[in-house]
Amino acid sequence: MEYKRPLIDKDEEEEDIELAAKRVTAYDASLECKSESENANNIRQSTRPQTGSSLSHRKAILILIIIVVLSLLTIISITIWVIFIKKAETTINVSKINKWKENAITVAGEIEGGQKLNQLDHPCGFFIDKDKNIFIADRWNHRIVEWKYSAKKGQIIAGGNEEGDRIDQLSSPTDVIVDQQNHSTIIADYGNKRVIQWINQNQQILIHNIHCWGLAMDNYGFLYVSDEKNEVRRWKIGEYNNEGVIVAGGNGEGNQLNQFISPGFIFVDEHQSVYVSDRENHRVMKWKKYATKGIVVAGGNGQGGNLNQLSKPRGVIVDDLGQIYVVDWRNHRVMRWCEGDKEGEIVVGGNGIGNQSNQLSYPTGLSFDDEGNLYAADYRNHRVEKFEIIL
């Protein structure tokens, strides 16, 4: 049987070809649309990660800026503190290296001791008021003498009626302070074992039966007195009808930290700490308020002339920075110590015993005026010396 190919109409064949062509064209268009859609998706997909990366970069930059600002603030703060500390250290160092002229000016008395108003006889403690008037315990003349600023002679304001125990007499006064509120003079009347007050030639015994040597007054209305019973007591000013309160010592004679041997001059700072010249222990002691024992702030290494030693110290005063100035009696000099230092330094004197302007002879009392000039009672030269500060 002969296979016969079906007959196809020519028009149908052309139509089939045309349909086939259309299908191909439609397929190609579909591919093209799909390609564009995929490209759009690809573009969107590639754009999203790019936006996240940009935010991360911005966050990193912001964090970096914050870190830099905080670092700068820290550096500035540290710098300010360093400058402040350095300035404070410089202030302390400037104060510590304060110096005084080697040669003193005699502001009271003469080398030749005597009873005249231009003379003194073994001056001991003294007081300088705000006008630079000097009130001197003229010990062996048994009187208190006031020398006005730049005066050539003094005037007697207490005693001067020969030695005695009458109310108008004194016996070997060792120290004097002036209560500038009522213009009264308070005196350690050593030989009569009493503390006495003089106001315009009127006298009142404040404290009886006390072997007093040094006096001090604080800013809180208390009077302090050192007693050769090896203690320091204080009284509320105006309330002397009691035994006072022991603020240093009071534990008998000895060299322990809670004892003294012959306490002499005293100084009280703004915190009511009491500084005491512990004469026979050759040291200066500091007793803080309410303390049961003191600490050694100068000397304490036996009697001697080395820079870490004192020899029977007398006058003591402390400046606003806590530097301690002490009269080194038998070494004929004034020394400066800082609390905690192993040794002190000589500020005036120290040129041997003598009566030259750069020498002292057994100095006793010590003080400063408001300008920082240093004064010392030159005991055996019968004068008060002023050492001018070097600015």
TrEMBL record:
Coiled coil: none
Superkingdom field: Eukaryota
Record GO biological process: proteasome-mediated ubiquitin-dependent protein catabolic process; protein polyubiquitination
Transmembrane helix found in the keyword field: yes
PROSITE patterns on file: NHL
Keyword Zinc-finger annotated: no
A Pfam family: NHL
NHL repeat residues: 304-334
CDD domains membership: NHL
InterPro entries referenced in this protein's UniProt entry, alphabetically: 6-blade_b-propeller_TolB-like (IPR011042), NHL_repeat (IPR001258), TRIM-NHL_E3_ligases (IPR050952)
Keywords from the UniProt entry: Membrane, Repeat, Transmembrane, Transmembrane helix
Transmembrane parts of this sequence: 60-84
GO molecular function: ubiquitin protein ligase activity; zinc ion binding
Protein's recorded name: Uncharacterized protein
Lineage, broadest ranks: Eukaryota, Metazoa, Spiralia, Gnathifera, Rotifera
